[in-house]
Amino acid sequence: MPGDGIGPEITEQAVNVLKAVVEGSDLELSFTDGLIGGAAFDAEGQPFPEITRQQANEADAVLLGAVGSPQYDELDRPLRPERGLLAIRKELGLFANLRPAMLYSALADASSLKPEVVSGLDILIVRELTGGVYFGQPRGIREVDGQREGFNTMHYNEGEIERIGRVAFEAAQKRGKRLCSVDKANVLETSELWREVMNRLAAEYPDVELSHMYVDNAAMQLVRAPKQFDVIVTENLFGDILSDQASMLSGSIGMLPSASLNEKGQGLYEPSHGSAPDIAGQGVANPMATILSAAMLLRYSFGRGDLAERIENACVAVLDQGLRTPDIMQAGMRQVSTAEIGEAVVNAL
Amino acid sequence: MPGDGIGPEITEQAVNVLKAVVEGSDLELSFTDGLIGGAAFDAEGQPFPEITRQQANEADAVLLGAVGSPQYDELDRPLRPERGLLAIRKELGLFANLRPAMLYSALADASSLKPEVVSGLDILIVRELTGGVYFGQPRGIREVDGQREGFNTMHYNEGEIERIGRVAFEAAQKRGKRLCSVDKANVLETSELWREVMNRLAAEYPDVELSHMYVDNAAMQLVRAPKQFDVIVTENLFGDILSDQASMLSGSIGMLPSASLNEKGQGLYEPSHGSAPDIAGQGVANPMATILSAAMLLRYSFGRGDLAERIENACVAVLDQGLRTPDIMQAGMRQVSTAEIGEAVVNAL
Ligand SMILES: CC(C)[C@H](C(=O)O)[C@@H](O)C(=O)O
Ligand SMILES: CC(C)[C@H](C(=O)O)[C@@H](O)C(=O)O
User: Fold this and answer.
1) Mean pLDDT for chain A?
2) What region holds the Isopropylmalate dehydrogenase-like domain (chains A, B) (predicted)?
3) Is the dihedral of CA A64, A70, A75, A77 positive or negative?
4) How far apart are CA A237 and CA B293, in angstroms?
5) B154, A154: Cβ pair inside 8 Å?
6) Class of the B1-94+270-349 domain?
7) Stretches in chain B below the pLDDT threshold 50
8) What is the pTM of this model?
9) Residue A108 has what pLDDT?
10) Can you name the CATH fold of A1-97+268-349?
């Protein structure tokens, strides 16, 4: 589902890479194009049309470009591109959003932080994606005593907290074995329950060291000393904010993939960056984040960590060759197009 | 109200500075000591006892140290120190929290960000402080279908948004005339109304340039290019996160004051940092943020910008003398105690 803005050009490269990596392997992939976001609105009058819903449900995995463009800003909210993204998350029950924030050593200079603060940065943020204030009911704008008021409900039950907790503990087991659960338990009851469930789960994962941090402090620590973190788990809204903050620490958000998984192993894979309508169609967008999302797709929806690693290694090799799209261009490197990066990754494979 | 941890030692210095600056001026201040947080719990069994409530209401301004200490972590939530802070905000109707995030040129190296990204940083965050999910009803933990669930309500009415909006527009008029309103209007109805009211207000402040930004993007932009901001206005929870993130950009949160104002000009003034129980009582805490909060107290609750500036200049002079508490110590500077900083500021006055 290419979506809007730079979506089509970056997914095109990622699909080429997927085709190349499975060629000659024992995995066969069959591809279907789907419409989502503004592109779907243009064609079908809806950001998440029925046909897309069916395709999504039938697929093992969805590779998504990005949604959103200023031309849709005046639409009624339910018709806007972002609603397509929220709808597919809810439809597929994609409760677990995995967002690595890491610094590629070839791009160490790109960060706005001092090199010693971020060199070797490698954090995984596990964001709950189908609960919290994003989907809580009741919600709306109503009139009370002659005055309008907006209201939303933040909401989590034990089951929802437990299942994202398990994903995070298991991810931590495979990494540095440290899990930091971020909440606002000094103010919110929702967070009180969140913290209680995380503490209960900790007993089942004795090899993982669990800590808790308030969200305001987490936002500070991500600036002050981000390398203190291994895996962070948090609820939907906090995860939205912190995962974007964390991805910007690397200075090269054009390199960062994401995966959103459900309980059946289906997943949606998309770059961490947005649709960048200002540079769409010019062939200058960085397809790396989408290519790396395709790697996550192979790892999580097809159990093919081996093929995923081949793609990841190929991306590093292309960086080492000095090829750069404009967003990560540095002196002494060679500036190339979106398609040239894609081709270089295929060649490196 | 000294509060907990380092609170007593830092407020002591700020009170000395206040006494020194009004001496010989036409302003007379009378001081009363009040209990809040853990200190109040120890003495009265409550983090915000009735006597404190009365003192707060009678005062023109409250100078607060900090609340919180691990020894209170096992108390029932309503008895914990932070609840004292939430209670005084609500009791006095302190809806407007002003939090400057700035970099003192003498401390430019302290930041974890590259010098060119933060040098000259000077942002004002205007955070709504008595609404949103902090105080919204209904809230709690309940059992539904044999499963517990936590829920909170995010809530703003037009009047609440308008009054914080006016504070922010007026602050922007006195500064760089650029106001960025941060929300999550692509997901939350509360934010939809927020954005609508900000747009409506903009017509009354034609000299201020209003922009809008989603909270996730704001968290990114504060890392990427924080100097793009002049004044930021946002709701309570987003303000909690972003103001802490922004204050950490300077690397010297021990220097950053805050003011929380109501509609009657009463205010509560406190450092942006916490109670740092690990270093309490050792005479090593940095009292500058509290001293600078006392300056804000003179400016906002007593209309004495002149006296405020004298304190602010004295603080800069002390930095220029090379005096530093350990938190901001650098090679070539002289490390001094909490009290020595206070005395140096008094002398500089
Ligand atoms: C577009 C928006 C609804 C979405 C979100 O807030 O979840 C985006 O910011 C993200 O993080 O994927
Ligand atoms: C202590 C806590 C309740 C408080 C808040 O969240 O408002 C603090 O973080 C702050 O920002 O003053």
Assistant:
1) 97
2) 1-345
3) positive
4) 31
5) yes
6) alpha beta
7) none
8) 0.97
9) 87
10) Isopropylmalate Dehydrogenase (3.40.718)
